[in-house]
Amino acid sequence: MKLGSFEVKLEKRVSLPGWEATLISLLAILVALVVFSYIFVRAGVDPLTGYKEIFSYAFMSSFGLPLTINRFIFLLLCTYAFIIPIRAGLWNIGMAGQLYAGALSAFAVAFAFGAKTSQNAVLPPGLVIPLMIAAAILGGAVVGAIAGFLKGRFNTNEIVVTMMLNFITYWIVARLIKEGGLFMGASGEGDGFKIPESIYAPLVKNVPFTVFIALGLAMLLYFLFAKTKIGYQIKAYGKSPSAAKYAGISPYKIPLLVFIMGGLIAGLAGYHYFAAVPGVYKITKNYGDFGDLAFYGIICGLISQGDALAAIPIALLFGGLTNGGRFAQGKLKLGFGIDYALLGVLMITLVAFQFFYRYKIVVVRTKKETSDVGIHS
Amino acid sequence: MWEFIVRSLDASTIFTIAALSELLGQRSGVLNVGVEGVMLFGATIGFMVAQTTGSYLLGFLAGIAIGGLIGLLHGFFSITLGSDQVVNGMGIWILGFGLTTYIGYPYTGPLGMERIPNVIGLSPFFFIGVALIIIAWFVLTKTSLGLRIRSVGENPSVAEVSGINVTRTRYLSVITSGMLMGFAGAIYSLDYNPVWSNDFLMGWGFIALALVFFSMWNPYILLGGSILFGTLWQLSLNPQLVLPDLMSRYIWRTVPFTITVGALMLMSTEWFRARWGAAKPEALGQPYIKD
User: Fold this and answer.
1) Which domains does chain B have, with CATH numbers?
2) Which residue has the higher pLDDT, B215 or B60?
């Protein structure tokens, strides 16, 4: 394309420097937010006012901020559940199923200690809480392992399998918390049973301690990918599974491993939201909404380009946006589901922008005088 | 029992058309994992237009049109930009899932129109579905257009050299494919279950995607698979009609998904591949960039 004496060309990238990747990601988010402001316009709200409402509720208000942080922890864990397999070139869209399994397993432990029968039971938190966490990890890992095993052993399409597992576990949760299920709550409103106060997860300044697990995982994953052999093997498998095989990397082991790791982190997300967030402490009847929210993990993972540390600010931003969005939707009468709409707009913008990870726009000055001579072809 | 069979065939119709659309795109080498998203668009827009205008015809046309548009978008990302088709498909699914939840919400509830009349007890779309299968088989195997579609799906460089316009053929397939997906979604929301609620598909599109793998890219096997899964799906919704008191109704809902995983696993085994030799399009999922 020519513009005066300049020519705009697309050029294939040989490499993508970190700062440019960051710039593209930020630009994608910005474009998505601009596109998204149509929703405010439609409702007759000035977009700047709309975003101000969202951000001030999400990050500045004493009601909104703790909710944002809880969502941030949840999203960060879901992001890691997605990032580890995607590093190996595999799509884990089964965070929802893995987190349901994690939550069920954690509540199974509480159930085993008699938490369902007595709301006031005094249970030893030092024993029950670690067991609940261990169970959540195990539950998520088992569901993840199914997809990983099938991929590694039979090369079964992991997208279909993880999605199927989402639906399977979704209905298993319904079976257990509804209509006389084992984990049904006393209220009869479709929620699961509530755990007694003695095994509420410890809070640090009103924030569940799971925040330390999530941030610890950030460090751990950063280290794993940057410094360890296994991190290297995952990456090599992601570049080319067949080439990795010749480098002595087991094509069975890697898919299984990354899905177990992803699944166990998603299991933790399940523990976090249903057993550690203040005011919840039960598998709520709208548990499916949290399964849906888990899909933000895909977006955070794609924007952060699989970087565990870069995922932190992104998860915080989206935790705030979804939380503030829910608030603004009520206050500004925007209609239900603006967090869902944002999810869609962000995702498709990112898809469009992935082009720029591979190509760059180059502006060259066309030198008329030299080309006239005919030296340059 | 008759009622159960009829409902099953109605359900099969949606699987048939959705899976056939995916098959068509895949035969030209373009994978769209976002079938569910396109169906959600077709279903929601079709529902909104039909309810607003009171016309089924306009509803279906709107569903088909939005499907075609989304197909075009997928084509633009996958063919023109040459981006990763899995990423694009996921994008389309999440876009559909997110956006339809928002725009359809004010329309929550029943369609409130007189039902589409049956043809000898069956939904007219069942016959359309079977006809589409026959047409697709005929076009793909007996016509030069079909040969072009298959060759750009197998080996685009060779196709290009022999004078076939790869880009145009792929666009044609992907847009037609999107229109059919939108149509399948509109059949769901206007005929099969004319009530709008958010994210109502709950996996139809993903099972349709799996059905394409099961069909080994053959329209007739696809029809058989769709009838099987339509029946299974209907059974999972109304188990009391056939097998009362066997399992909780929630556990019944897991059955189609569990069987999908099982069948997919079986199909991926060495034994199955050696025995049946799946005819997967060689260039499936690979962008074609002219040098």
Assistant:
1) 2-110+120-276 (1.10.3470.10)
2) B60
- A153 inside domain: yes
Is B99 in contact with A163 (Cβ distance < 8 A)? no
Q: Record the pTM.
A: 0.91
Asked if B210's CB is within 8 angstroms of A172's CB, the reply is no
Residue numbers in A near B248 (CB within 8 A): 175, 179
Report ipTM for this prediction: 0.90
Cα(A299)–Cα(A297) distance, rounded to whole angstroms? Answer: 5
- Quote the number of domains for chain A: 1
CA-based nearest distance A179→chain B, Å? 9
Q: What's the token pair of residue A269?
A: 């997300």
Which residues are within 8 A (CB) of B217 and not within 5 positions of it... i.e. 6 or more apart?
B23, B26, B27, B278, B279, B280, B281
Helix (H, G, I), strand (E, B) or coil at B30: coil
Dump pLDDT digits (tens) for B146-166.
Answer: 999 999 999 999 999 999 999
- Which structural domain, as residue segments, surrounds residue A245? 2-17+68-306+347-373
Q: Give the tens place of pLDDT for each residue, A318-364.
A: 999 999 998 988 888 888 888 889 989 999 999 999 888 888 878 88
Cβ–Cβ of A352/B92 closer than 8 Å?
no
Cα dist from B219 to A62, A77, A110, B21, B163, whole Å: 59, 42, 51, 10, 27
Beta-carbon separation of A168 and B96 below 8 A: no
Min Cα distance A203 → chain B (Å) is 33
Residues of chain B in Cβ contact (below 8 Å) with chain A:
33, 77, 81, 83-84, 86-88, 90-92, 94-99, 101-103, 105-106, 198-199, 202-203, 206, 209-210, 213, 248, 250-251, 253-254, 257-258, 260-261, 264-265, 268-269
Contact B102 A340 (CB under 8 A): yes
H runs (alpha helix) in chain A: 18-36, 38-42, 47-55, 64-87, 95-112, 125-154, 158-177, 210-227, 229-239, 241-246, 253-271, 287-293, 296-303, 311-331, 338-358, 368-373
> Does A341 map to a domain?
no
